[in-house]
Amino acid sequence: MTIVLNICIYIFSFINFIKIGDVNNPPSENGYGKVTYEYSISETELTNECYCFFLNSVAKTYDPYNLYNPIMGEYFWGGIVRKTDSNGNFVYYVKPGFEKYPAIGITWNSAIRFINWLNYNWENIKNKKDITYYISETEGDDNHGAYNTQKYLNSSLHIKRNKGARFYLPNKNEWIKACFYNGKEYITTNQNLQIANCYTEDGWKYPYPHLLSSEKGTVSHYGTINQNGNLGEWIEDPFGTDGRNWKQFLGGSLIRPKYSLDINYTEGDAPDKSIASVGIRIIQLTASTTKQTPPTISYTPKHNTRLSQQQDEKWIKIGDIQNEGDLYNQFIGNVNYEYEISKYELTNEEYAQFLSAVCRYEDPYHLYNKNMEIGAIGGINKIKQNNGEYKYQAKQGWERKPVVYISFYDLCRYANWMHYGCPNTGKCTIGTTEGTATQGAYDTGKFGTKSKKSIRRNKGAKYFIPNRNEWYKAAYYDPTIQSKNKYHIYPTQSSTPPSFQEANYMIDNQLCIGPPFYVCNVDSFQNAPSHYGTLQQGGNVWEWIEDWQFNKYGHIALRGGSFSYTEYGLSSINEDPGGINDISYVFGGRLARISQDTGYIYIPMNGKNYYYYIISQFYQSPKKSLLILCCILIILSLIIFTIMLKFKSVIKNIIYTLQYLTNIIIWIFLKKKKALLPTNESRILYIPCDPWSVWGSRGDEAMIYASMKLLKEKHKTEQFYFITSTDKGITETQNRGYKAIKAWKGKSPIYHISQALRELNPTQVIIIGADCMDGYYSPDVSFTLMATADLCSSYNIPYHILGFSFNENPSWKVKLAYLFCSSAVRFNLRDYFSQQRFEHFTHKKSTLVADMAFLLEPNPNFYDFKEYQQWCQQEKNKQQTIVGFNFHPMLKKNQSIEEIHEACSSLADMIIHLLNQHSELSFLFIPHDNRGKLSDTIVLPIIANKIREKGYAQRIKEIKEVYHADEIKAIASLCDIMICSRMHLAIGSLSSGVPVMAATYQGKFHGLFKHYGLPEDLLLSPATFITKEFISTFERLLKEKKSLAKTLQEKQPEINILSAKNIEE
Questions:
Q1: Residue 26: count of CB within 10 angstroms of its CB
Q2: Is the dihedral of CA 807, 810, 815, 821 positive or negative?
Q3: What is the extent of the structural domain holding 133?
Q4: Are 532 and 471 in contact (CB under 8 A)?
Q5: Has residue 9 got a pLDDT over 70?
Q6: Are residues 810 and 900 in the same domain?
Q7: 186 and 279 within one domain
Q8: Do 907 and 881 sit in the same domain of this protein?
Q9: pLDDT value at 1010 more than 50
Q10: What share of the chain in percent tops pLDDT 90?
Q11: Which residue of 106, 314, 437, 757 has the lowest C-beta tally within 10 Å?
Q12: pLDDT value at residue 823
């Protein structure tokens, strides 16, 4: 081991480059492959020994960019391991025998950092210098290195190579030419298919560890090895045009079928994602002679998985007949009959019993695959007995683990066998594995015939593969959810990604189980079932379902994710494709059944569900359906208007809906206008979410001032414009020294805003998303903000939607608008949970940021501040703890005045109790909002007066005025702890290092606390905020205030970086 380590640290093997000539070659039929210059490309994929040397050069003390990730060592074909030496430094070494194997799991971001480092150190490599001479820099800017890693990384904008560097990641033209061009033409079907390392109908092409050494495999005309198969290879080009920041990788891989080797086949993924089947290859531009110098640029422990060995009933009854489908996901999950589904995935032990019962003599349908014995994750041995018959037996330790390497047809035949009562004839015939249109669960006579209809169970089937709705309902439906939509995002009764204690999947590039098993027993994670009690419908292995992926002909759908995939695979919105004959080390399944003697009988949905189903079909094809829907609505509106003239509210809603649809149509036409040319004059335009007052919300004000400071520095401008809808908004804006445009007006404000955009042609548009992008307050406002961003994208006007939150119950009208929004529009979500809800609801990609207000600078330079500062200092001199306090009177929607007064009285009683129990407490009452008839300035005096009546006047200080956002932040910083129910007061406190206890509303504070890693039990619902739980929660806050303050201080730099991302290009 020491020898291997020393080799890795002190010797860097040359990367052998092959010259690619034939300059000015023609492009291929797909338009790629033409290269007008000579270049060289590495003969092989980057090896473990090369990447290991790189890691020892740059990531010995720490690894801030996650250049190493655990799957490089834990995965069964991974070859690099990281250890920690006695000095606490990292040391990387190659597993014995894996030196020449390609390095896996390198992210696209890590690839360009490796290439930057390679450019800086090429002279050292050529001269075989000791590692101590190497420049340990991976970062680049516009003038240093091959790539600028300070701009656009993980953004939707394409990172272009710098001029003058020697080494780069290949672009698509360079890669395709090297792989497919033979000097005369493109060989689009690889000539080396017999040796290409791709997945076959029999499973793995090569023995364990299944990956080929970099020196073995296919050879191109120019001499590159394994450009086809083995590992996919990252290239420079972006993947897709939907606004995501994904990058392409080409060449297929050992887990992809042979069609992935075709010249037209492309895959893509996130640039910061580590994938076990993707590596890199490098190009060298021989014309470059510029010496590269680096710029001056100023391991989470693995969780232990607790696996439960408890057994329970195998079949779970799924009731709740005629349930509604998922309103936010195409109405999937509606099932109109009672059925049962297996609690567990199908095991090796169960499948081995099946094989022994039907394949003792021969296996005509290849129900057993050799990889079940020799492949990774395989758990079944095939044993030939003395009498010539075969028996099948689960490997020791693998009995209760899920069977893999089964195709969709294999699972159908297993269902037939179960349907027939598990006969033990040793043969695959009608009555055991085979069926007809009237016998068995599936008609196997149709297998292999081309049809746009997916394979469906027979009427009367007793056991069958669950279809999309059955599987989805069992995994995600929960009738106890207290909202209109009754579906979780994850199959663990949660809309938050599960931990390693709840599911077997990959978190932050770490495997949950790891070697040697990787998968866990099917009865694990008893603590994280679905509502009905199924286990591991998320993670472990993908599960076949009966439908085409997304109902589109070509690929059977798989659901649930696997041990080697991220939380996206577990989520309800994801559905992966599988060829109907594909087998894989991550493909398994489970069955469902009808316990009645009649077996399966289709039952149609009721009228209410049929209505929702029609709506879901509209969501799938919105543009084709919009005109039809508008016509229908107009006709229905006229009928309803005639019949129900006296019901004014009904007519009002119909008119409102028609106006909303009209605005969508206007917006669609506005998008067709020509893009604008950039202007030389810098001017910034703000689109507020409150165009009536503009400055009324202190939260909006905080975001405006924080962003304005950064924009002034960036654009060197003082010209700021604000869209408003009122004279009051104009006056207030002008009083602050800015210009106002009254463009949010009329029934169709988007039309007038479009005109303002085109006339002003601003340098930058800033849209204040806040909490107004989900339609909770106003679908019209949400639509206008989103549509404005879309118009900016269409008109070529730079824009940013400042990070917004997204609540648990968004308006369906907003979803209608998001359907027509361009995929190029960039959305910033200000907390993790909002991002999950937003992407689940809209199916749009987004960027996680932190609230812009975190960067607001406090302003203590106002007259009254000294008064509050002196009072706080006076109290602290008495060893008092200053508790900031605020109460939002409208935590619950539509509360009566009596209910608000009762809440104030309860809060006063609890503060009196705390003052009585803790003589060291003093309270500073801080109002944050004065809008409306019942604002903070109305309710806080009610609470304060009751406290004074009990004799505690000397220990409270009441602020009467609502100050500006930066002034409120200065006041908050005077406190030791804060109790509040205003999110931006919480942000001002947390960013000042003041621990917070809060009353939540619209699900906002949970994401805010997640940024800091704060305990969620410091958050109370509006109902519990005015109960005795207020006291116990405060006691905890008081006890832990020092440790919480330390956490805030440590986390704040990370959050500031996230906040600055709001206005990154």
A1: 12
A2: negative
A3: 1-293
A4: no
A5: no
A6: no
A7: yes
A8: yes
A9: yes
A10: 62
A11: 437
A12: 86
- Least confident interval from 129-133, 456-460, 714-718, 1032-1036: 129-133
Over range 746-768, report the average pLDDT.
Answer: 95
Give me the pLDDT at residue 158, please: 77
For residue 347 the two structure tokens come to 């095991």
Residues 727 and 664 in one domain: no
Structure-token pair, residue 1000: 């939540």
For every residue of 597-663, which 3-state class applies, written as one string? CCCCCCCCCCHHHHHHHHHHHHHHCHHHHHHHHHHHHHHHHHHHHHHCCCCHHHHHHHHHHHHHHHH
Number of domains in the chain: 4
Q: Cα separation of 366 and 748, whole Å? A: 64
For the purposes of burial, counting CB atoms within 10 Å of the CB of 660, is it exposed (0-12), middle (13-18) or buried (19 or more)? middle
pLDDT(650) > 80: no
- The two three-digit tokens of residue 762, written as one number: 């601003």
Rounded to whole angstroms, the Cα distance separating 891 from 889 reads 6
Do residues 200 and 258 make contact, with C-beta atoms less than 8 angstroms apart?
yes
Joined tokens for residue 59: 């990531």
The angle formed by the CA atoms of residues 426, 430 and 433, to the nearest 5 degrees, is: 60
Average pLDDT of the chain is 88
DSSP state string for 248-277: EEES--TTSBGGGGSTT--EEE-TT---TT
Is residue 562 one of the residues assigned to a domain?
no
Per-residue b/e over 335-363, b at no fewer than 16 CB within 10 Å? beeebbbbbbbbbbbbbbbbbbbbbbeeb
Question: What does pTM read for this prediction?
Answer: 0.58
What is d(CA 165, CA 290) in angstroms, rounded to the nearest whole number?
Answer: 7
Contact indicator for 826, 873 with CB cutoff of 8 Å: no
Give a yes or no: residue 394 inside a domain: no
Strand order in the sheet with 339-342: 315-318, 339-342, 592-593, 463-464
Q: Are residues 25 and 138 in the same domain?
A: yes
Q: What is the mean pLDDT of residues 1026-1055?
A: 94
Asked whether residue 472 is domain-assigned, the answer is: no
The mean per-residue pLDDT over the stretch 574-591 comes to 90
Question: Is the pLDDT reported for residue 6 higher than 70?
Answer: no
Domain C-terminal end among 670, 699, 728: 670
The pLDDT, as a whole number, for residue 299 is 29
